[in-house]
Amino acid sequence: MFSKETYMQRRAMLKKAIGSGVVLFLGNDDMGLNYADNACHYRQDSTFLYFFGLPFAGLSAIIDVDEDEEIIFGDELTIDDIIWMGKQPTLREKCERVGITTSRPTAEITKYLHAAAQKGQPVHYLPPYRPEHRIKLLEWLGLPFARQESSTSLIRAVVAQRNYKSEEEIIEIEKACNVTADMHIAATKAVRPDIYEYEVAAILEGVAFTAGCNLSFATIATINGQTLHNHYHGNKIKQSDLFLVDAGAETPMGYAGDMSSTIPAGKTFTARQREIYQIQNRMHRESVKALRPGITFAEVYDLSARILVEGLTQVGLMKGNPEDAVREGAHAMFYPHGLGHMMGLDVHDMENLGEIWVGYDGKPKSAQFGRRSLRLGRMLEPGFVLTIEPGIYFIPELIDKWKAEKKCADFINYDVAETYKDFGGIRNEEDYLITPDGSRRLGKKIPLTPEEVEALR
Amino acid sequence: MFSKETYMQRRAMLKKAIGSGVVLFLGNDDMGLNYADNACHYRQDSTFLYFFGLPFAGLSAIIDVDEDEEIIFGDELTIDDIIWMGKQPTLREKCERVGITTSRPTAEITKYLHAAAQKGQPVHYLPPYRPEHRIKLLEWLGLPFARQESSTSLIRAVVAQRNYKSEEEIIEIEKACNVTADMHIAATKAVRPDIYEYEVAAILEGVAFTAGCNLSFATIATINGQTLHNHYHGNKIKQSDLFLVDAGAETPMGYAGDMSSTIPAGKTFTARQREIYQIQNRMHRESVKALRPGITFAEVYDLSARILVEGLTQVGLMKGNPEDAVREGAHAMFYPHGLGHMMGLDVHDMENLGEIWVGYDGKPKSAQFGRRSLRLGRMLEPGFVLTIEPGIYFIPELIDKWKAEKKCADFINYDVAETYKDFGGIRNEEDYLITPDGSRRLGKKIPLTPEEVEALR
C-alpha cells in the first residue's frame, strides 16, 4: 500500500475534477466458484484500489463532493470471523491507513444515497462489470439493469488520473515486469517436445507464486498460438511446434506485467519459422523505436502493419502496394489484433471504463477488422505505460473465410497462405513507459531475437 | 466426461423423483475479476456437471418433466469467437456428447419459461449462490431477489443422487486424491525455516497444475494453523513453527480431493508439539476405525471429541468427566469445527444445497458452538465419500473470550491454556469411501504419525 497522502491526493484531484455531486465506488465482493464459500482468489476493483487502497471484500465508498465527505462502508469482523479467518485490523484501522476517518456499516449506504437523491445530488458511478455491481445499483439506487448508466464525467476524470503513472506506480509496475520476465525466461528454458502445455504453464506460474505474486490474467501457453486467447493447456508438445506464451505477474498491490514469448519446441527455429519470426521482430523493434510523446499509437500500429506487409511480400504471402494493403486492412488476415494497450492496475488498464476513453481520448475508433481490436490509438504522453505486442498468425478458419469471400485478393496470395495453415502463430511482447524524450522498457530483458531465444534452449 | 448413458440415466432418475413440472438448471458464466474479460478460472456449476457434463460458460438447461423434454440453451460461436478462442465443437455437438438432442439459443429460454408458467407448471430450481444466478431468476422468471425460493423437492432429489458415488465417480475422486496426496508429500518435504508460506504454497499447487489438475479450493498453507480458513501466505516460517497445509486437487472433470497435513518447521516435532500431535492422531485413527454403514457421523464426531478431552486432560489442559465435557461443548474451545464433510464434485459436496439436506437428511442440527460447524451428522451409507479431519487449536482470541466469560470453567484449565497461546494448530485429513462393511481410504497414503512426517523431513 502507498502512503495515506497518496490516496488523499488522488481523491482531492478527483473531487476537483468532478466538481459536485456524490461519487459511489463499488468495491468487489468474494465470488463463489461452485458454492458461496468456495471463493476464487479475491481481487479488489482497480479504481477502488487506486483511490482507497484497501484490498478487502465487502467494502463500498462514497465521496460526497458537495459536503466534502469521504466515507467507507463495510462491516466489522465478529468473533466467528476471527476464529475462521484470523485476527485482522478493524475497519476503522484499515480506513486510517488510507486517510479515511469516517466508516459506517454497509446497511447505512442506502440511507445515505436516498438522502443524496432527495437533495438533488447526482450520483456518479463507473460501469458495472460484475453481476454483484448490477445488483447493488438495483438495490441501493433503485435502478433497473437497463437504466444503470454510468457517469461519463466520472469515467473521464478517473482516466485522466490513472492513465498517467506516478513514480511510485512505475516502481510497482516494474516489480511486476521483473517477475513477468522471470516467468518467460523459465518458460523459454522449459519448453520441450513430449510434455504437456500445462506442465510449462505450471512452471511459469510457479515463478510468479514463488515471488509472492499472483497472475495478472489467465496464462496463454499453447502450441496453437494462432488462437489469440487460448486458455486450453491440454495438448502434448511436438518437435515441430512453435510454443506461444502470453503471461504476466500481478504484485500484491495489484499492478500488472504482461509479456509474450514464442519458443521453438525443437532446440532451434526451422528456416521457415525463423523467416516469419524475423518479420515479427522487425515489427516489434521498429514500433519500440517509434515510441515518443507526440506520436499517436495508431500511427505506430500502422507502421507495424506496413512492416508486416513488406515482410510477407518478400516471403510471397502478400503482394501489391504496402500502404494500400494496410489501408484496406489486408494485413489483418495475419495480424488480427492491435499493437498494444495501456497497462497499470489492470493488465488492459481500465478496460471496464471503455477503451474509447482510455485509449482514444473520446474520439471515434475504426470499425475495420483488425484495426478495431487496437485498444489504444491516442497521442502518447509521458507517464503512459503500454505494451508492444505485434504478432503474425496463420488462422486456418480465417484463411478459408477470406479466401472464399475473395477478400483483399489484390494483396494476399491465398495459394501460399494455404501452405502455412499448420504454422501456428508468433507474438513477442514487452512493456514500455513513455518518457519525455522517448520510451523506456520496464523490467528486465526477455529473449527477443531468434539468437537470444535459442541461447536459452 | 462420462459416457452419454451416464448422464441420460442420471436425468431419468431425477425426472422420476420430481414427477412433474419444469426443472431449470443455471449453468455458471465467466466471472470478470477486475473487468469483464479478465475472467478467473472457469468453473461450471457442479449440479449442471452432474446431469449435463458440459464444462462451458453461458449454458442453461431445462428438463420439462411433463413433456419429457430435455433442452440446453446456449449460443453458437461466431467467427470472431473462433479467431480469439480457437475451433470448438458446435453447441449441437457438445449436447450430443451428453445425450441431449435439443439445443436452442439462450434468448428463447424466457419464452419457454413463460409458456410453462401459463400452463401452470411449477418451475423448480436450486438455491442461487452466484449473483448472476439471482439476476437470471429475476430476468427470466420475474422473481425479485426476496422471492427467489428454491425447490426443496429438487434439492432432496439431487442430494439423493449425488450423495451416493458410483464406481466411475469413485475412480475420478481417487485420481483427485492421488494428486492431492502428492501435493502434501511435496509440502512435507519443502517446509523449512526462513522461507515464506507462499513458497510452500507455490510448490504444492505446482504439483496439482503439473498433473493437469486445478485446485479444489483455495490453499491453506500457514504457520497460523489456529486460524481455520487462513488464506494469507505472506509470513516467514520460523524454526519453532508448526506449518499447517489444507489443500486439494480438482480433476478436469471437476472431482475434488481434500487433505491436511501438519509439519514441524524444525526437522522434528518438539516434545510439546508431539504430545498434542499424538492426541490428534488418536482422534483421527479412532474416527477412521469407527466408519461403517449404520453409525451416524455425529457419533463419530462425539467419539473424536471424547478422545480429545481425554488426551487434553492427561496434558492438564482439561479436567472433569469427558462425557460431560463433550455434552457441554467444552472440547470446542480446542476443536471448534466439525470432523468432516461429504466430498465429490464440490470439496464440501453440495454445500450450496444446504447441509441440512446433504449432511443431516433434513433433520435438525445442533446450534452449540463447535458442533454447529459439523457439516455431516447423518447415518452413514455405502457410497458416501467424506473427509476425516479432526483438529486441535489454540486460538488466543477464543481463549481470552471464554476465560473472561468463565465458560466451561469446570472442564478447562485456563491457566494452562494461557501457556499454549503461541502453539498454533494441528489438523490431519484424509478422504474415505463408506463401503458395505466399513470404509476405504481414497488415494495414496500421506504421512500421519509423527514418525511418518519426520521421515520425509
The CATH architecture designation of the largest domain in chain A is: Alpha-Beta Complex
Task: Calculate the terminal CA-CA distance of chain A, rounded to whole Å.
Answer: 39 Å
Proportion in helices of chain A: 25-40%
Q: What's the pLDDT, averaged over the residues of chain A?
A: 96
State the CATH class of the largest domain in chain A: Alpha Beta
CATH superfamily of the largest domain in chain A: Creatinase/methionine aminopeptidase superfamily
**Lateral strand order in the biggest sheet of chain A:** 4-3-2-1-5
Helix-strand makeup class of chain A: alpha+beta
Largest interface: A-B, 64 and 67 residues
Strand content of chain A: 5-15%
For this structure, the quaternary state is homodimer
> Describe the biggest sheet of chain A?
5 strands, mixed
Annotation field: number of helices of chain A = 16
- Domain tally of chain A: 2
Unreliable spans of chain A are: none
Global geometry of chain A: globular
CATH topology of the largest domain in chain A: Creatine Amidinohydrolase
Number of strands of chain A: 15
- How large, in whole angstroms, is the Cα Rg of chain A? 24 Å
